[in-house]
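Input structure tokens:
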């Protein structure tokens, strides 16, 4: 994925001299040394100073350039939050901020480097677009979309290998999710490399149980694709959100707001439940944080039971 990130930036820069890249001493991690070799005058390594990086990116944007500024997601969010708000978003400048190693993909870097709340931090910023590609094809397409967007964006970047879900000719638009699999009983709405693939596996398991599950790649968490959410809520009546993030504040909350405002559908959320990150392999962390396909299946069964009236949403109060 980082190779696709760097190659796409090079392709953009070859066509548009406004494209510049900023790094917080992570060019090796993000694969952007090749960009620096191709465009040394358009590459800025600011060192381990994420807030400064965002401020510099905002200055470049104010001069008419299109800056892509990247660091690990924990630092792009928690450390650079106020600088990004004031210098870029509040100032209505087009800074393209990238947070890599989203959620448990930080793996052995552990809890200090594990962004499980970055979407929640940034989702309240006015007019900010937040997205997380699920495969190499969507990464390239959404990067191009981001470059053409006038305002600021925040992208969660999975750096390592990712299965290809889409054919190269597939088109993407920020704010418009993708229906990967049709289904009529429950919709699994997922975002990002890890959880979209887990949702697809869960849909296969559920199909074996006679349960028809749709799978949605909701690559853009803000603005959420309301039309697609409501289409699934009205069609299936039961939704499960799947995110590599705290269950509160991210995709699950965005979907909950939509269906609550429209008064349609039931929801279960699969995500990290009030826990800090820890070190481990991605496979271990998926199991430990209940982010596996079997956890999505369990959530789907629960919400379907509620839809069928078998289980009340809230336990009844004791008599008397």
């Amino acid at each position: 994925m980082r190779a696709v990130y760097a190659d796409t930036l090079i392709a953009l820069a070859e066509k548009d001299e406004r494209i510049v890249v900023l790094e917080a001493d992570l060019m090796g991690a993000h694969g952007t040394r090749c960009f620096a070799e191709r465009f040394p005058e358009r590459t800025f390594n600011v060192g381990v100073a994420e807030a400064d990086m965002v401020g510099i990116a905002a200055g470049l944007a104010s001069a008419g350039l299109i800056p892509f500024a990247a660091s690990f997601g924990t630092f792009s969010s928690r450390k650079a939050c106020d600088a990004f708000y004031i210098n870029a978003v509040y100032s209505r400048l087009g800074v393209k901020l990238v947070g890599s190693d989203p959620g448990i993909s930080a793996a052995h870097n552990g809890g200090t480097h594990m962004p499980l709340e970055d979407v929640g931090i940034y989702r309240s910023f006015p007019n900010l677009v937040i997205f997380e590609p699920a495969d190499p094809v969507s990464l390239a397409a959404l990067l191009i979309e981001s470059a053409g967007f006038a305002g600021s964006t925040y992208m969660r970047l999975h750096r390592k290998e990712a299965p290809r879900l889409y054919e190269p000719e597939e088109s993407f638009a920020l704010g418009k999710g993708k229906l990967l699999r049709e289904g009529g009983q429950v919709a699994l709405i997922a975002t990002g490399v890890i959880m979209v693939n887990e949702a697809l596996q869960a849909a296969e398991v559920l199909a074996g149980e006679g349960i028809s599950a749709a799978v949605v790649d909701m690559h853009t968490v803000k603005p959420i694709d309301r039309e697609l959410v409501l289409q699934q809520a009205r069609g299936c009546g039961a939704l499960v959100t799947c995110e590599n993030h705290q269950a509160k504040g991210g995709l699950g909350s965005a979907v909950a707001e939509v269906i609550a405002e429209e008064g349609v559908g039931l929801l279960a959320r699969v995500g990290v439940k009030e826990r800090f990150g820890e070190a481990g392999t991605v496979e271990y962390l998926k199991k430990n944080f209940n982010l596996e396909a079997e956890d999505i299946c369990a959530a789907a069964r629960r919400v379907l039971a509620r839809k069928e009236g078998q289980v009340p949403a809230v336990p009844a109060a004791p008599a008397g």
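The longest strand covers residues 238-246. The radius of gyration is 20 Å.
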